[in-house]
Amino acid sequence: MPRSKPGPPVKPISTPIIDALEHEAQIFAAIGVVLHKEGMEDGDDKEYANFAKMLTEGGINLAKASQGKESGRRPAKRPA
Fold first, then answer.
1. What does the alpha-carbon distance between residue 39 and residue 21 come to, in Å, rounded to a whole number?
2. How far is it, in rounded angstroms, from Cα 3 to Cα 47?
3. What is the pTM of this model?
4. Which of 3, 41, 55, 64 pairs with 16 at a CA distance of 20 to 30 A?
5. Are 70 and 61 in contact (CB under 8 A)?
6. What CA–CA distance (Å, rounded) separates 13 from 40?
7. 3-class SS at 39?
8. Segment 47-70 mean pLDDT
9. Roughly how many angstroms between the first and final C-alpha of the chain, as a whole number?
10. What's the rounded Cα separation, in Å, for the pair 10 and 44?
């Protein structure tokens, strides 16, 4: 059985909720970066630094996921 041709690329869905989620994720990532800056109170505490790193990475990953860029997965199709 012959394979069918791939269709056009699927565009990410842009809704107010997804846009807000991406914005909040970017804020979390930015806060994590600031908390990890040299001179911040408790900045030399390893547990605190690990928390800041997790906050940054989590925010970045969530922002990417909201754009459909996680794990190479394609975003969902827009409902008809």
1. 30
2. 53
3. 0.63
4. 55
5. yes
6. 38
7. coil
8. 87
9. 29
10. 45
42 Cβ contact list (under 8 Å, min separation 6): 48
Please tell me what DSSP assigns to residue 80: -
Under the banding of pLDDT at 50, 70 and 90, the label for residue 43 is confident
Q: Which helix (H) or strand (E) holds 30?
A: helix 16-35
Question: Which DSSP letter does residue 45 get?
Answer: -
Total Cβ atoms within 10 A of residue 23: 11
Residue in this structure with the two tokens 């970045």, named with its chain if needed: 60
Cα–Cα distance for residue pair 59/40, rounded to 1 Å: 20
Query: Domain spans of the chain?
Result: 16-67
